Amino acid sequence: MPKRDAQRRFNPNMKEVVRKEVMKLFNVGIIYPIFDSKWVSPVQVFPKKSGITVVKNEANELVPTRMTMGWRVCIDYRKLNTVTSKDHFPFPFIDQMLERLAGHSHYCFLDGYSGYNQIALEDQEKTTFTCPFGTFAYRRMPFGLCNAPATFQRCMMSIFSDMVERFIEVFMDDFYVFGDSFDQCLHNLSKVLARCERTNLVLNWEKCHFMVNQGIVLGHVISSKGIEVDKAKIDLIASMPSPTSVKEVRSFLGHAGFYRRFIKDFSKIARPMCNLLPKDMDFVFDQDYENAFNALKKMLTSAPIIIPPDWSLPFELQVDKKPHAIYYASRTLNDAQLNYSTTEKELLAVIFALEKFRSYLITNKVIVYTDHAALKYLLAKKDAKPRLIRWILLLQEFDLEIKDKKGSENVVANHLSRLVHVSNEEEDLLPLRESFLDEQLFSICALNSLNPFPWFANIVNYLCTNELPTRLSTFQRDKLRKQARYYFWDDPYLFKHCPSQVI
């Protein structure tokens, strides 16, 4: 079904912006007038923003903002996109591409000139747009079509198919040539430029950089040393003032989360700020949130250099059960998983790590170090819970070897999670023996720093005051109401109605 839209209204200033853009495209032959198209989309003008800049407001406070550098003329192809069959051509994984690029001595960074406009169109009439100066159609692929990115990536991959991952990486209109020496990189560059000349692929020489030792690739700095964060972006994040709204918190977490692979315990540090994101939560940015905010900025400014893996060596995986999260991979346990047994939590950690890093571990030797001795013999067990059996089946595709390691030695995974604070009066009564296996400990009293109150505190407060805690989300409030129906309070005791009606 053809889609026709009426033109949008523009004031004289915006109309002049549209006129200049239309004349520029018409003069170079990218668009042409058309009168009988059944597909018509409107023109829209948006402010062209620069990168985030920290400026002072009227109250002399530093606030992050985006400065308007001009105007961008776009075509609103939303109705056309809804009836377009989607092209699902795959894009390269950014982390894997960065690992292939890192570790070389010389690089060349090439940029395509008006990339989309270099692709010829077959269904030109469907790109028709209307503006105050008439209706025009594109001869070349415009921006705004839902299949434009996939089409362009497919075209670039077909051009450099025999070179990709050998000495060039391609991501849209950015081409990264690399070599382990000056002569090798120069030789690879000559091959790439010859291919561009043969296929009439035009490059933007003003944005190209040749024979350099490092460069920025998708927000990361790659060099012979490895992968680093972009210092310009980190300095910008570090200069951001404390958030004053949920929107600013979400923006900060989005920027910081882009580099979460460089930050140890990212989920643990960012968790207080994430608690402010639910819609029904009151925004109170107290000292705990300020500490998390400053800690993330400090971790970003001191982020380490990541080195690509050596595929000739076996991978070692150190896992340990955690009562609330698995860090680095940012995996938290839900309510059901918190009730798992020790063995199930240990195996869940292994399953999650293997799935998360499957692209690294598959077809490679994997050595799993764990301080839970029962996990070592679980793979050979004939009878187990259905859930454990399903997990064990998932492990069969890996070349897996589980090695026992005492908790006192597995300091990387443990992270002191089993040390329990003892009051000063009891410190001298019993020496701490870290060499004990976990299976020998029959009683552990762990303090939850995220929830220092007893489990029944919210229930008692609700029964006494009939008010719900403001810090809880909507889901948590509904859950508390359901739980409270089975209890009643008779000061100073809390009683529960059992299914048999026994109190």
Automatic annotation (TrEMBL):
Q: Where is the Reverse transcriptase domain?
A: 68-221
Q: Coiled-coil ranges per the record?
A: none
The record lists the organism as Prunus dulcis
| One Pfam assignment | RVT_1
Q: Name one GO molecular function term.
A: endonuclease activity
Q: What is this protein's name?
A: Transposable element protein
Swiss-Prot/TrEMBL keywords: Endonuclease, Hydrolase, Nuclease, Nucleotidyltransferase, RNA-directed DNA polymerase, Transferase
- Specify the Reverse transcriptase RNase H-like domain's residue ranges: 319-398
